[in-house]
Structures are given as structure tokens and as C-alpha cells.
Amino acid sequence: MAGDAPYGLIEEAAIAVTPDGILWTGAEADIPAAVAHYPRHDLGGRLVTPALIDCHTHLVHGGNRANEFEMRLMGASYEEVAKAGGGIISTVRATREASEEDLIAAALPRIDTLIAEGVSTVEIKSGYGLDIDTELKMLRAARRLAALRPIEVHTTFLGAHAVPAEFKGRADAYLDEVCIPALKAAHEEELVDAVDGFSEGIAFTPAQIARVFDAAKSLGLPVKLHAEQLSNLGGAAMAASYGALSLDHLEYLDEPGVQAMASAGSVAVILPGAFYAIREKQVPPVGLFRKHNVPMAVATDLNPGSSPMNSLLLAMNMACTLFRMTPEEALAGTTRNAATALGLTDRGVIAPEHRADFAVWNAEHPAELSYRFGFNPLHQRIIGGWIDIPLA
Ligand SMILES: O=C(O)CC[C@@H]1NC(=O)NC1=O
Ligand SMILES: [Fe+3]
């Protein structure tokens, strides 16, 4: 896929790769003489796309929140769940109690599930430690996953995810005494690729997040933000003023916020799993993103509370069915736009001078990747030009 047709689809295509990446792509009939002698691997006429990229996950975490799922379905309110010690704080407790090895062991099946769907790059956030040691422990675990599996991990510091119980009512003190020092320590240990926050009434104000972003800026780190998920506090516009790589969720974003994103070149990361799981009614402004040419990415938001969803293919289907994105937009959302949301320019498209990371599908048309749900049509991944040998 790399032409001018819808999806950039090229029929009867060929891709020439070297250890440095993609050298050439086009119709097999047009293979240049310079690469005609290359050894060939016949993919049987299957559909080939860029390997998928999940640009927003919290897949490293301790414990699970199935009990809350059950409590809510037995009629408990969010407040009653929170009073019973539920919510993010419940995961914080389990994550603090888990060792780094425990976190890795619990994350491996989750990352294997993404790999099995053709994912070759995944973003993983901290944010369930909310103390310096545990935030660093989460990021170390995330980094080590890349050494244990054939996948690239991009880490995001999310210390501004929630105010921990010991700082209840003292958000600014938490930012000054824990969050910002943790960011600096994590950066010192080279554990951080980007910095995120949760701008919401139940979390931090845009002004508070801006203090974390000022620290990120002083360290030369890019930013992104969970914004306008449950209300409009102006978080997206604030983050856009920092040149945010992406703004994520965005159900309650208005047109001025979309325009601010367009001016900043920020990507809108669409997270249908959380919308579905919390039974939100307000859909993100997909029409405004189109109108103002704001690129849209699609991700799982894999987390134990608001989006315990481990399938990027299902996220693509939900983005179409729930938010009316087209299958072409959904596939761009898990390839080239997901790469842009992570600040990556070397992947996400099948084009010369890009990584030779591909997903080969038992499918005849790209729309099949969003059309089905609960079915995985992946035939194999090709990573760095090499056939990916399944681990299991
Ligand atoms: O419920 C959780 O554990 C995470 C909630 C999650 N975090 C965030 O910033 N938005 C969310 O939906
Ligand atoms: Fe999230």
C-alpha cells in the first residue's frame, strides 16, 4: 500500500527491502533493474499494510478492576465504587505492591495479544505509581518489555494521572513534591520519551498540567494530554500551545480547540474503548477534525479501569461503528497517524526510507480490518524485513 488509490493501495505490488529498511515499492511489473536480482518472498497475493502502532496504552499496571465492573452492574454508583476504594487508586495500590518482575509478567500476555494483531510499536504510560519509586518502576518495566518481545516500546510519563490518597486535596503539593521530581529522575535514567497528563475535573486543571509541561519543556521532552474526555476545561488548547504531539479522548472538544490543534499540528487520538466501557454518550468531533485537517489516530487506551480492551483491531471497528470514522481513516489511525502521535517519522507508511515493518493479512481488502470484530486476520508480521517467527 503506497499509491494514490484509496488506502494508497497498489494491486500486485512488490516491496524491496534492505537491512536499512524499505528501498522501493510499486507494482511488481515495475520492479527496477537495480533490485530485480534480490531474493524474493512470495506473500501469496495477501494484503500487506504497515505494521500497526498502538499509540496510547497503560498496559503496564498491577491488579485488575473486575470487581468494580461487577459492582457497577449490580447497581453501585461510581461514588460507591470509589468509597469502596475503587478507581485509579485501586490500581495504584496494586501497582505499588507489585515488583518490577510482577509488572512485566502481568504485561507480557497483554503485549503478546497486540503483537498477534500485527502491532510492532506500542506506547506505554506510567501513572499508576504516583510516587517516585513506583513511577520509575513502571517505566523500567515498560522499557524491559522491548527486550523480551519483538516490539518497540515508547514510554510516556503520566505522573499527573491522579492525586494519590496521601495528597488528597493537595494536588499542587503532589505536583511539586512527587510528580515533577519523578519526571526529572525518570528523564535522568532515560526512561521517558514523552510526558502526558489527565486534564479533568477528577484529576488536574490545565494550569496544573502546564506546570508539568513546563518541566517537560525544560528537559526537552514532547508532551501529549488526556483532554476533554468528560468535560471541556480547555486542556487541549493549553497543550496545543506547548506543541503537543497528540491530544487524546476529546469527546467534549469544541471547534476552537480543534482549530488550536490544527495550528499546532497535534494529532487527535481517538479512544473508543473508554467511550464504550464507561457508556459515554458524547462522541468526539470527527467531522471537525476532518474540516480542519487534524490527523486522527486510533488506540486501545488499554487500562484496567476505563478501557480494559486489548484489541487494536476492535478499536478500529469501534472507531468506525461508534464514531463513524471510515475504515480508511481507522487504518491510517493505527499506522501513519499513530506514528505521528508518537513523534515518529520512520514508520507507519510503506515508502522508501521507512522501516520494513509490515503486517500481512489473510484479507482481500483493507476495509476487512475494521469490518470484523472478534476475528484476527493476521497471517504474519515482517519486522525489519525479517519474517516474524511467532513466539507461541
Ligand atoms: O480507570 C483507570 O484506571 C484509568 C482511567 C483513564 N485514565 C485517564 O486519564 N482517562 C481514563 O479514562
Ligand atoms: Fe489513557
Summarize this entry quickly:
By secondary structure, the chain is α/β, with parallel strands linked by helices.
Beta-strand percent range? 15-25%
Order of H and E elements = EEHEEHHHHEHEHEHEHEHEHHEHHHEHEE
The major sheet is characterized as:
8 strands, parallel
Inertia-based shape: globular
What spatial order of strands do you see in the largest sheet?
Answer: 4-5-6-7-8-9-10-11
Helix fraction bin: 25-40%
Q: Distance between the terminal alpha carbons, to the nearest Å?
A: 29 Å
Ions, cofactors and other bound molecules? 3-[(4S)-2,5-dioxoimidazolidin-4-yl]propanoic acid, fe (iii) ion
What class would the helix/strand composition place it in?
alpha/beta
InterPro entries: Amidohydro-rel (IPR006680), HutI (IPR005920), Metal-dep_hydrolase_composite (IPR011059), Metal_Hydrolase (IPR032466)
Binding site for N-formimidoyl-L-glutamate: 128, 303, 305
Binding site for Zn(2+): 56, 58, 226, 301
Pathway: Amino-acid degradation; L-histidine degradation into L-glutamate; N-formimidoyl-L-glutamate from L-histidine: step 3/3
Summarize the helices and strands and which ones pair or pack:
Elements: E1 13-18, E2 21-27, H1 33-36, E3 47-50, E4 52-54, H2 66-73, H3 78-83, H4 88-97, H5 100-115, E5 119-125, H6 132-148, E6 152-160, H7 171-188, E7 194-199, H8 206-218, E8 224-227, H9 235-240, E9 246-249, H10 255-264, E10 267-270, H11 272-277, H12 286-291, E11 296-298, H13 312-323, H14 327-333, H15 336-341, E12 358-361, H16 368-371, E13 378-383, E14 386-387
Parallel strand pairs: 4-5, 5-6, 6-7, 7-8, 8-9, 9-10, 10-11
Antiparallel strand pairs: 1-2, 3-12, 12-13, 13-14
Helix pairs in contact: 5-6, 6-7, 7-8, 13-14
The protein binds 3-[(4S)-2,5-dioxoimidazolidin-4-yl]propanoic acid (DI6) and fe (iii) ion.
